[in-house]
Amino acid sequence: MLCSVLIWLENTVLSTALETLADPDRGLGADPGRLQWATGAYTLAFATLMFTAGALGDRFGHRTVFSGGLVVFAGSSLWAAYAGDADQLIAARAAMGVGSALITPAMMAILMWTFTGPARAAAVGVFSTSAGVGMAVGPVLAGFLLDHFWWGSVFLVNVPVAAAALVGLAVLVPNFRSPVPRTLDPAGMLLSVSGLSVLTYGLIRAGQVAVWSRTDVWAPIVAGLVLLAVFVLVELRVEVPGFDPRLFARRAFGGGNAALGLLLFGVAAITFSNAFYLQGALGFSPMKAGLANIPTALGALVGAPLASRLVRRLPLRVVTVPALTVAALSMGGYAFLGLQTPLVLIEILLLLQGLSVGMVIGPVTAALISDLPLEQAGAGSAVTNTVRQTGSVMGIAVGGTIMSIVYRRAMEPSLEGVPGPVREQARVSAEQARHVAATTHRPALARAADDAFVHALHVAAGWVAAIALLGAVVLLITLPAGGKERGPAPEPDQEGARGSGARSAV
């Protein structure tokens, strides 16, 4: 739970710090493309190394891999805190993603080995509340740190938490390992990393040049898609793949993962935009923006246990399809926000979004993992987490690119007659436009940047809502209409556990 909170804490902390990192004086002066990479590099490494980390846990023990991931995460957090420029921050964030990838499959595998029967579903539901805790603490903590210290403090705070978690692992957690270790899959890892990286580069590059027809945009996109197709074909031919596409043959498993991927696409895209809306367009301080995001976390904290209770009485589809629909519509609600929108309306929208997202992620994840045999729990967890993180990567890349393209086109009429250096800086982003407007005493330029940003937010919100709604359609089609009776989950093979014969209590 502590490590899961740490990972969610890091995700929300960065979103609060984006506006500061874009500022040339208080931060690194990072442009939108580099900020997309600072966010996406972490998620990209997280997504593509997840199934490899699961196989390492099966082979060497999940506690061992878990501990190694924490060391990597803490070390790279220290690196990120003292990064000298945006490129160093991107590299440090990618290393943090490696640490998170080693941690996450081990968390779920240890959970599955520790609990059996009905207690397992309850434990997964409780475990899901860690997302809400991290989402609640992260923005407020980041706001406090950014208001009182330099931007690197938001990464430095990870180090003592990781140290405490390492002590807890050594004292409380047995070194569970699978009795039948999965083989490592270097070819699959290389193809997935290169495919997603190249695809993401092409998508982000489109936002930097504001056109899709250039070779340096469409060629990486096509190459990335081809590499990912080859990756799937290779995994299908491997007897024991790290990422098992065969699991998608289970209709509910495949559909549920696709829906979660589309939902996380929307969440990542709208969260990225919201950070700049609150602090940039509305001028909130980091602390005020952090406090403004609390309703999202509270909604998630309420939504996850509420959905867990509801699915005991109602079919999963009846609970999650309406919830995912509401989540998509709440993302579309950003199309109605403006520079004069009352804060109470923004808070209601964020509360609704957090509640509905929490009601989907917890029960769907629990159903997907619980439906698999114990020996496939590690592989299934890796697939589920990889799909979710891939959805987040694509959400940041596509959502940020739509925002950049629409902003530049909306800003062009206001740049006529503006000196060349000022014009080029104002084209980069609304943050850069506000900065150059302040230094050159052009208040009209700052107002134009705010208007162009809000227009871009409206357009992006429409696309994001449509994609998230597609996830609700997928759930409606693939989940069973009625309840499904499950037999008791198989007991874990304690012969395969190392470190302690007794189960740890949580």
Automatic annotation (TrEMBL):
This is MFS transporter. It comes from Streptomyces pactum. Residues 1-483 form the Major facilitator superfamily (MFS) profile domain. It is found in: Cell membrane. Residues 483-506 are annotated as: Disordered. SUPFAM superfamilies: MFS general substrate transporter. The chain crosses the membrane at residues 39-57, 64-82, 94-115, 122-144, 150-176, 188-211, 217-236, 257-277, 289-307, 314-337, 343-369, 390-407, 452-477. The keyword Phosphoprotein does not apply. Keywords: Antibiotic resistance, Membrane, Transmembrane, Transmembrane helix. It comes from the Bacteria. It holds the Pfam family MFS_1. The keyword Membrane applies. It is a multi-pass membrane protein. Signal peptide: none annotated.
